Amino acid sequence: MRAVLADDHYLVREGTRQLLETSGEITVVGAVGTADELVDAVRRLGPDVVVTDIRMPGGEWRSGFEGIDAAHSIRAGHPGVGVVVLSQFSDSLYAFELFKHGTEGFAYLLKDRVGDLDELLGAIRSVASGGSVIDPKVVEGLLARRAVRGDHDALTPRERDVLREMAHGRSNGGIARALTLSVSAVEKNVNSIFLKLGLENTPDTHRRVAAVLAYLGAS
Amino acid sequence: MKASRVTRAVAAAMAAVAATGVVAGALLETGLPAPASQWVFIAVALIFPALGWLIAARRPDNAYGWLLLATADCMGLGGLGIGALIRLAAGRPAIAVPATVLASLFAVFYGLSWVFVPLLFPDGRLPSRRWRPVAWISAVSIGAQALGSLFVPGKLQEGMPIANPLGLPGPYGAVAALIASLGQLVLLIVAFAVLGNLVSRLRRSHHGERGRLGWMAAGVTANLAGFAAIVIFTFTHAPGAAAAFGVLSVVGALPAAIAAVVARHNLLDIKVGIRGSRLYLVFDLRPTVDELLSGLRPALEEAEPAEQLNRLAQAVRAGVDVRWAAVELADGTRVVAGQEDEEAVLTVPAGLGRIACGPKVGGRLTREDRRLLGALAVPVGLAIQSVALAARLINAQEAERRRIERNIHDGAQQQLVALIAGLELARATGGGADVLVLLREQARQALTDLRELAAGIHPSVLSQGGLVEAVEERCSGLPVTITVTADPGLRVRRFPDEIEGAMYFTVSEAVANALKHASASRIEVRLSLREDRLEASVTDDGKGFDTGAVARRGLATLADRMTALGGGLELTSGRGEGSRVRAWVTTHA
Fold first, then answer.
1. Which string of DSSP letters, residue by residue, matches A184-207?
2. Cβ of A36 under 8 Å from any chain B Cβ?
3. Residues B379 and B441 grouped into a single domain
4. Cβ <8 Å between A9 and B417
5. A107 to chain B nearest CA, in Å?
6. With 0-12 CB in 10 A as exposed, 13-18 as middle and 19+ as buried, what is B504?
7. What's the topology of domain A138-217?
C-alpha cells in the first residue's frame, strides 16, 4: 500500500514513516508538515491511504481542525483514499467532527497508537477498504459520559469490551482473537448488545461502527 | 440651591402680606367678634401663603413657590380691599379708591389659581412649549378682567355700602364690564382646558406621577365647583351653607391638594412625618453629595467590581431620584437599576464609560441633580476602571492557559509520541544500541522542554530562592552581556507570592523583548527596595521603538498585574535610544 504522512512535528513524522516502512506492507510515498501540502501530495501522488496529524498550524483551515478538514476534503475529492487521523485529544468532540458526514473510510486514533504497529496497520487496512475505526479510548470516554448523564446501558463489563472492539471496526473473529474468546461467545455478546441498545444487528463491520457511534453520540 | 437671607426675607414678607390681608379683610367684613365660620375661613385661607412661603424659602430656584406666594397675596389683598369697601369706604373716597384697586386683585387670584397654579405644577414650568400661547392669553385675560372690573359702574358686590367710585358712566362702563366678562370667560375656558390636560396626563401617567396629578386635578375641580357655587348663590340666594362651601373650596382646595402632594408624594423634597405624637416637617430629604459618597463607601469596599457597578447604579437612581439609572461600560455592558422603560434623558461621561438616567420620579432634572451626577461620576468611573482591569486580567489568564495548553500539546506530547514511535520501531526491528542512545537523547530533550515549560509557568527557584535568585537564574546563559544588580539586603527579603511573581515575570518579559525585538547587546537589570517601594528596571541598548506606535502586548498584561497590586509599570523608549521598563509596587512588610 502507498501512504502519505502528514505531521508538523519532524520527529513524529520521521518516526512514523520508519515504523510503517518497517512493516514491509506500506510504502511511504510522501511525508509533509501542513494540511495544504497534504492535500497537494494526495492529488499528485494518488496514495491508497493517508495518515495525518489532527492539528497542523497554517493555511486557511479552521485552527485546530486542519487534519480533520483536510481529511474531509481528501475523501470528497478522492473517495478511494482511506484516512487515518492521529489525535492528541481523547475528547469525543473531535471524533464526531471527523465522522459527521459519515464513517466510511475514516479512522480516528489516538497518537499513542504509533506504539502498536499491528494496531496502526489494522486501522490503515480497514480505511483503505472503506471501513472505519474509532479508538477504544474514545469509546471509553463516550461510555463514561453517558454514565455521567445518567444513561445506564446495563451493559456487562464483557459487553463493554466487545462494544469497544466493535467500534474499532473488528469482525466477530477479530474480536474473538483480541479478547481471547470463542467466536460463538462473541456472537452472543454482540447480539445481547444490539438488543440492549435497541440497534439493528448487522454483520457488516463498517455499518456496525456507524451504529455504535450513532448510539453513543445520541444524547 | 440654598435660600439666601434675602430670598427668605422676601418670601416671609410676601407670606405676611397675604396673611395680614386675609385676617384683616375677613374681620373687616364681619366685624368683631367674628362668627366661627369666619375663623374657619381665615384658617383655610392661610394655608395658601403658608405653603407658598414653605416652598419659596426652601426651594427658591423653583418658581412654583413664588407663584403660590403671589397668588396668596392677590387673595389676601383682594380680601382686604373687599373688607375695607364693606366696612370703611362709605363716605371716605380716600379709602374707597385704593380699596377698590385692591379688590380688583381678587380677579387676578382667580386667574392665577385656575390656570397657572395647576399648569405650572409642580416645578414652575409649562408642561410643554405648546402651552406658551395659552399662558400669554391667560395673562392678558387676567389683566383684562382685573382692569375691566376696576371701572365697572355700580356696586361691586351685593351688600356693599357704596357704588364703585371708579365706575365709568354710560357706554364706557358697559365696555369695561364687557372686557371684564370676556376676560373671565376666556379664563374659565382655559381653566377647563388645563383641567382636561391634567386628566389626560393622569390617564397616561404611571404609578409615581398618578398620585400627584390626581390630587391636582381634584383640587382644580373643587376650586371650579366652589366658584360655580358662589355664582349660583349670588343669583339664587341659596342658603349660606352652599356659599360657605363655595368660598372654602375657592380659597382652600388648591393649597390642600398641593399640601397633600407635598406630604404624601415627597414632592419638592419636603415631607411630613409623625414622630410620637408630634407632627414635624422634614426638609432636604435629598442626600448631599458627601452623605451619598460616605454612605456608599462601606458597600463599595466590600463588593466585587461587578457588584460595585450595581450598587453605584442604585445610588445614582436613589440619589438623583430618577426612575432608572444605568452604568455603561466602554464595551457596551450595562448595569441598570430600576425598570428601564423610557428613553434616557441624560447621560454623563464617567471614566471610560458613562452614566445614563431615565426621567425624574417627580419634576425635571435640576441643577442640583446634575451636580450630584457629576460627583457620582467619579466613583462610577473608578469602578468601571477596576471592572475593566479585572476583565483584562482574567482574559490574560485565559490566554496564558491556552498558550500553555498549546505548548504542551505541540511540544512535550509530540516528543513523547515520537519517542513511542521510536521505541515501537526498535521493538519491531530489534534496534541496536545506537538506536537506544538516540531514543534516550529524545527522552532527555523532552524532559528539558518540560522543565522549561514548568519554569515558564512558575519557576521553582522563585518560590525556593526568592526574587533576586530567580531573576539571576533567568538572566544567566543568555547570548548577550547582562548584569543584574540588587540592593543589599534584598537578596534575603521575601515578598508575597503575587508580588514576587509579577515582578519576576515583568523582568522576564522585558528581557525577552530586549532579546527578541530590540537586538540589544547589553541589558541591565536593577532591583531596588526604598522604604517599602520595590522597584525593578530593565534597560537595554537596543534599537528602541516608538512607544506610541507599538502595541505592548505582553507588557500590557503585566502592567495590569502591577496595577492590580497597587503598583505600576512604565515604559520609556524612542527609536535608536534603547528602552527601559520600570515596574514598582508597594510592599507592606
1. HHHHHHHHHHHHHHTPPP-S-HHH
2. no
3. no
4. yes
5. 18
6. buried
7. Arc Repressor Mutant, subunit A (1.10.10)
ipTM summary value: 0.80
User: How confident is the model at residue B277, as a pLDDT?
Assistant: 57
- Which residues in chain B have Cβ-Cβ distances shorter than 8 Å to A16? 421
Nearest to B417 among A23, A55, A112 (CB): A112
CA A125 – CA A133 distance, rounded (Å): 10
User: CA angle A173-A178-A182, nearest 5°?
Assistant: 50
B438 touches A: beta carbon within 8 Å = no
Tell me the residue range of the domain where B525 lies: 464-586
B429 and B328 together in one domain = no
Do B428 and A114 count as a contact with CB atoms less than 8 A apart?
no
Cβ contacts of A22 on chain B, cutoff 8 Å = 425, 428-429
Chosen domain end from B350, B372, B391: B391
B464-516 pLDDT, tens digit each = 888 998 998 888 878 888 899 999 888 888 999 889 999 999 999 899 888 88
Query: Are B335 and B313 spatial neighbours (Cβ–Cβ below 8 Å)?
Result: yes
Same domain, yes or no, for B255 and B301?
no
Report residue B207 CA to chain centroid gap: 20
Q: B107 with B146: CB under 8 angstroms?
A: yes
Do B61 and B123 belong to one domain? Answer: yes
B417 and B514 in a single domain? The answer is no
CB contact under 8 A, B428 and A9: no
For the record, the C-alpha cell of A28 comes out as: 511511504
Q: Do A88 and B425 touch (CB under 8 A)?
A: no
Distance CA A97, CA B202 (A): 62
Dist. CA B56–CA B58, nearest whole Å: 6
| Superfamily of domain A2-134, CATH level 4 | Response regulator (3.40.50.2300)
Look-up of cell digits 541496536 = B432
Q: What are the φ and ψ backbone dihedral angles of B545, each rounded to 5 degrees?
A: -160, 170
Q: How far is A161 from chain B (nearest CA, A)?
A: 25
- A117 CA: distance to closest CA in chain B (Å): 7
Asked if A11's CB is within 8 angstroms of B428's CB, the reply is no
Q: Which of B39, B64, B79 is CA-nearest to residue B250?
A: B79
| Mean local confidence (pLDDT), B179-202 | 88
Q: What is the mean pLDDT of chain B?
A: 83
Instruction: Give yes or no for residue B156 having a pLDDT over 80.
Output: no
Same domain, B379 and B415: no
Q: Specify the CATH number for the domain of residue B499.
A: 3.30.565.10
CB B140 within 8 A of CB B104: no
Q: Where in chain A is the domain with CATH 1.10.10.10?
A: 138-217
- Chain A residues whose beta carbon lies within 8 Å of the beta carbon of residue B417: 9, 12, 15, 88, 111-112, 114
- What pLDDT score was predicted for residue B275? 56
pLDDT digits (tens, 9 = 90+) for A76-117: 999 999 999 999 887 778 888 898 888 889 999 999 888 889
Q: Which residues pair with B585 in a beta bridge?
A: B534
Cis peptide before B33 (omega within 30 of 0): yes
**Does the pLDDT at position B215 exceed 90?**
no
Tell me the pLDDT tens digit for each residue of B93-140.
888 888 888 888 888 988 888 888 888 887 788 878 888 898 999 999
Is the Cβ–Cβ distance between B219 and B199 less than 8 Å?
Answer: no
How many beta-carbon pairs below 8 A join chains A and B?
Answer: 52
The predicted pLDDT at position B69 comes to: 92
Q: Are residues B203 and B71 in the same domain?
A: yes
Q: Do B428 and A18 touch (CB under 8 A)?
A: no
Domain match, B311 and B239 both: no
What pLDDT does residue A207 have? 72
Q: Which of B247, B282, B317 is the last residue of a domain?
A: B282
Calculate the average pLDDT of chain A. Answer: 87
B234 pLDDT band, cuts 50/70/90, is confident
